[in-house]
Amino acid sequence: MTGAAARGEPAGVPEQPVLAGLDAPARPRRRARARDVDVEPAGALPVARVAVELSPPHLDRPFEYLVPATLDEAARPGTRVKVRFGSQDVDGYLLERVAEADHDGGLVPLRRVVSAEPVLTPAVARLARAVADRYAGTLPDVLRLAIPPRHARTESEVPGTPAGPGAATTPAGPGAATTPAGPGAATTPAGPGAATTPAGPGAATTPAGPGAATTPAGPGA
Questions:
Q1: pTM, whole model, 2 decimals?
Q2: In angstroms, what is the C-alpha Rg of the chain?
Q3: What is the distance between the alpha carbons of residues 91 and 97, in angstroms, rounded to a whole number?
Q4: pLDDT above 90: residue 174
């Protein structure tokens, strides 16, 4: 068996002539087409530029991804995102969103937003880029040191939220008066020797110091 049949080619394909003493030329490989993904893009600024957390220097540049409509609100600049890179899912930082992509082909959509809390400000991103360029590093390596690791519990807490109803307010400083719990409650004096406010009608006033006369609460006291 010789010729096209020996190479497993279908019948009828003309055989390419080969010069004596030379190997047969390799057949060109067909490039696999990317699978079409039916994802509705965000209405405004549908292109996200992401710094992927990969150490090789030749990957130290932003990569463009499509922002799905379902992630439009959460995918803000500075947030942590998960993207598909090659055959694996990797973490990254969303640097910015733009209206049009520089890439001519189709874009892979963002996988998900890891945390909706922005952790990378534009100032920190510019500083990290300058440090990486100055000391021959990569942006992901600098960001790994500049941004603390993620704490899901801390990110879920809202700053300034009170502990619950009826929680006591911390005084502003030593000697500050405490807010009374309800009507008729006595107020804590602001300092030594201060008179205490009576709890209600008919109560005697506490004297300010030793030997001080007690002021009657009302007529006939």
A1: 0.55
A2: 37
A3: 17
A4: no
